Amino acid sequence: MERLIWDEYCLTGTAKYLLDDPYRAGKTGLFARGCDARAINRLIQDGQVKRENIVIIGICCTGMSDSVSGQMAAKCCDCTHPTPVVYDLMIGEPVKPVAKPERFKAVAELEQKAAQEKSEYWTRQFAKCIRCYACRNICPACNCRECFADQYRVGWLGKQHHTAENLVFGLTRAYHIADRCIECGECARVCPVGIPLMELNRKLIKDIQQLFGDYHAGVDSETAPPLGRYSLDDMEEFM
Ligand code: SF4
Ligand code: SF4
């Protein structure tokens, strides 16, 4: 415990560490801020971990800092749930959830552009991708035991490093996590080439909220994600 350092620069999400040793006997203790707690719910709901095997030390979060600029980290500026939604012990004073509709500003601006412009924008972005998979590896919603990106059989994702395959990777990943992204912003934070991945994720979140109503992934572990349930009242424009 003497070696544990926890300061305002500890930006990395903690929940994904639970998958490092999924068959570990006994309980695992984990520190969790609001985003980490939603990520834990994500993993519980996806059947990756059991709640009874985790001891969650919740930390009421006031935001973390970017180690380069010293300013509040981008992901924290857009945070809606800084207080852990699941915990066993809690440290600090709870902070109420905030709506932050402005986090969809970049998406709304992009939606105003013509289809060709949007296509060029994302092509430019994914031309930079080096397929390091850091975005996938840090993401608590990317928790498949075998990712489509690691398939070697023909017909899955090609291994060539070029824009078309990069786009297939980026867009498929966005769709895979469409109704399960907990908006921790870790993918965009770790991308070494600065692709604004949260713009893609938030486009899907915005559309899902318009089609299925207000839904925030990982806020609890009981409410099924909208794309994982069927209702006769579902809107049909997308079918
Ligand atoms: S995203 Fe929210 S809960 Fe997570 S570190 Fe930033 S302010 Fe804290
Ligand atoms: S982190 Fe960025 S560069 Fe790496 S695979 Fe993801 S999008 Fe591509």
What's a concise summary of this model?
32% of the residues lie in helices and 6% in strands.
> Whole-number average pLDDT?
93
In this structure, how is the largest beta sheet organized? 3 strands, parallel
β-strand number:
3
- Please state the structural category: mainly alpha
In total, how many domains does the architecture comprise?
A: 2
How does the overall form come out from the CA principal axes? globular
One letter per element, helices H and strands E, the order comes to EHEHEHHHHHH
Strand content: 5-15%
Low-confidence stretches: none
Strands in their spatial order, largest beta sheet: 1-2-3
Attached small molecules: iron/sulfur cluster
**Rg over C-alpha atoms, rounded to the nearest angstrom:** 18 Å
The N- to C-terminal Cα distance equals: 54 Å
Helix content: 25-40%
Q: Helix count, per DSSP?
A: 8
